[in-house]
TrEMBL record:
Transmembrane segments: none annotated. SUPFAM superfamilies: Acyl-CoA N-acyltransferases (Nat). InterPro entries: AcTrfase_GNAT_prd, Acyl_CoA_acyltransferase, Bact_Acetyltransf, GNAT_dom. It comes from the Bacteria. Pfam families: Acetyltransf_1. Residues 1-141 form the N-acetyltransferase domain. Keywords: Acyltransferase, Transferase. It comes from Myceligenerans indicum. This is GNAT family N-acetyltransferase. Coiled coil: none annotated.
């Protein structure tokens, strides 16, 4: 996960234990020839169980553009649909163009913000002071 810097902040081993042990249905991983190549950490909201929030998406640089994120988010989407959720959503850094291209390719919408950065709608201070984020969602049927 460190390889996702500056866009990904690696969590602790204890965090990953919890994701794998308590939230495995929305925290899928991808292996290529036995080696961990990508992971998604997503969680169903307890405040609004009709929503699944995607916290982290990370694919090893050697395995990007191979459809791993497409497959992992597809798995999260299938689980959310099985639960009858209304939407999946996530945020990314305003300057993460690879992420923006990925979410759009997968049919996610970039929510309106209060400013635009290189064609991306950004909400200022979304995650606290100075933490501007682009917000994306995929509505489910
Ligand atoms: C963003 C990221 C998760 C995409 O993962 P991925 O497994 O490479 O994505 P996929 O292979 O499923 O790509 C699906 C489509 O998204 C688009 N896409 C993905 N990466 C892209 C890039 N770097 N530039 C332009 N388009 C891109 C393409 O349309 C791609 O389809 P194609 O390869 O057939 O053209 C990956 O680049 C990554 O791990 N980056 C570092 C960590 C990060 O920024 N995570 C997101 C933080 S919110």
């Amino acid at each position: 996960m460190d390889m996702g810097a500056p866009f990904i902040t690696a969590r602790t081993a204890s965090d990953y234990w919890a994701y794998a042990t308590l939230f495995s249905s929305t925290c899928p991983v991808a292996h290529v020839e036995g080696v961990l190549a990508g992971a998604v950490m997503a969680f169903r909201s307890q405040d609004d169980p009709s929503e699944v929030y995607v916290q982290d998406v990370m694919v090893h640089p050697d395995h990007q553009r191979q459809g791993i994120t497409t497959a992992l988010l597809g798995s999260v989407r299938a689980q959310a649909q099985e639960w009858g959720c209304r939407r999946i959503w996530l945020t990314s850094e305003p300057n993460n163009q690879a992420a923006d291209a990925t979410w759009r390719k997968l049919g996610w919408s970039n929510l309106s913000g209060d400013r635009e950065v290189a064609g991306v709608q950004v909400i200022s201070n979304f995650k606290g002071p100075g933490k501007d984020r682009a917000v994306y969602e995929l509505l489910l049927n």
